[in-house]
Amino acid sequence: MTDFPVSDLRSVEIGTPDLASSVDFYTRVWGLDVVAEVGDKVFLAATGDDFHVLELKQSDRAELRKITFRVRSAEDLASLFAKTVAAGCTVMREPGPADAPSGGQRFVIREPQGSVLEFVHGDQQKQGTIVASRPNRLAHVNINSAQIEALSSFYQDVLGFRLTDRSKLMAFLCCNNDHHAVVLAEAPANGLNHIAFLMPDLESVMRGSGLVVDKGHPIGWGVGRHGPGDNVFAYFIDPQGVVIEYTAEVLQVDDGYRVRGPAEWVWPPGRTDHWGIAPPKSDACKKAQISIGFSGV
Question: Is residue 170 part of a domain?
């Protein structure tokens, strides 16, 4: 298997203009648990091994503040810092102790297209478990890019990710056996497209989605099965306009996986997923997918 310096996607930080409302949604509706509160920031965990998968911070607007990746070793952390600086990234935090209660060593940079990335090693983890119909960990983050090939090259050449598939509008990138941890979507402006949470199985996606619907939040797209990655999906919009996804059964890949191009990822007219049963994406979901910017941009 490719020698990845980044081992996995750990967490994301979202800015919210109504912290209490966001915490209520992600605990009461989405299935996460509050594990720490520090100042105006709340840390929420899924059921898996990560101390937390989501940070919510009081902000003037809904925004993506940070994506955090776990790094394999202290040596890789130092090497990645040097590579990101050489690639022209803005240093937000020099290598040192992490600010989050999960601890570890970290550095934080802003990549050339505007998203803030944190890389951490030695952070605290917990003894996770599988709980039906609740998120176990993050699956992927999807980033909008006005220059998708440049950003794809950054993830591959600087951060050590590998391209797994390229559809007409999206580039799929992996850092472990999951088909993708990062997806880049062609868009008029840079920003957040959506955040995907991994559910234990297809049944959990279905039942979990039903519970979210029961609590007054309609499905924005799905339930269906994607092409690249072959994962099951159901998209929702949180109270502040952030698109979030329940997903499961993500394709596992190795170095023998053949990258497919746009010509091989084409649906028949009217179809938006593998199964052909997902209704068209709602207008509200499409709008939300291009409405969340990066912090400080």
Answer: yes
